[in-house]
Design brief:
This protein is of the alpha+beta class. The protein folds into two domains: 59 residues, Ribosomal Protein S8, Chain: A, domain 1; 55 residues, Dna Ligase, domain 1 (2-Layer Sandwich). Strands 4, 5, 6, 7 and 8 form a five-stranded antiparallel beta sheet that branches. A three-stranded antiparallel beta sheet has the order 1-3-2, with helices on one face. A hairpin with a 6-residue loop joins strand 2 and strand 3.
Length: 132
């Protein structure tokens, strides 16, 4: 089934699986989703991910992360730039998510990166989502 917003679908699948307390979730793969998963792993929001090849586009198997009380590492996500309304920011306009406790993910000319790295590199771009 084709989706009009694959990034929102990726984030919703992760949040729904976390609310259902699944250990892992399979998501149709793409390069952007792979980069999003890489950033979420580097920032400590998911345990790990791997790409599973098949005869189609492949799958991303994302292993979710929980604490001792089995509450998820991701408290919330928000899709900021949408297909109907793109949101572009300069490096000096990148918002801080929960005063630096969360992250914003940007699509820049240097690839996908967090708000912190984009400010350091002094590069702006499309503000994809925020995670906390």
């Amino acid at each position: 089934m084709a989706t009009t917003d694959p990034i929102a679908d990726f984030l919703n699948r992760i949040m729904n699986a976390q609310r259902a307390r699944f250990d892992r979730v399979d998501i149709p793969a793409s390069k952007v989703k792979g980069e999003l998963a890489r950033i979420l792993r580097e920032e400590g929001y998911i345990k790990n991910y791997k790409k599973i090849e098949d005869n189609y586009q492949g799958l991303l198997r994302v292993q979710l992360k929980y604490d001792q009380e089995r509450s998820g590492a991701i408290a919330g996500v928000k899709r900021l730039s949408k297909p109907s309304r793109r949101l572009y920011v300069g490096y000096d306009e990148i918002p801080r998510v929960l005063s630096g406790l969360g992250i914003a993910i940007l699509s820049t000319s240097n690839g996908l990166m967090t708000d912190r790295r984009a400010r350091e590199a002094k590069v702006g771009g499309e503000l994809l989502c925020s995670v906390w």
